[in-house]
Amino acid sequence: MEVEHYRREREQEFQSKQQAAMGSQGNLSAEVEQATRRQVQGMQSSQQRNRERVLAQLLGMVCDVRPQVHPNYRIAA
Which ranges are annotated Polar residues under compositional bias (predicted)? Predict the structure, then answer.
């Protein structure tokens, strides 16, 4: 009887410690997920802000054609 009581007592202690450890782990997971969401939102807003400027820059580079002879080109005689 006494052994059974001691075992139940220890089991309850273990359960409470396990719950405390898992609870803090769950909180950490929620914090990491929230930080990740904030970072993704920041990247999306940055992409929206810079999209037009980058597209204009790319189109400018692609459409600005300047025909030139390469410096290493040698006329064959």
Answer: 15-28, 37-48
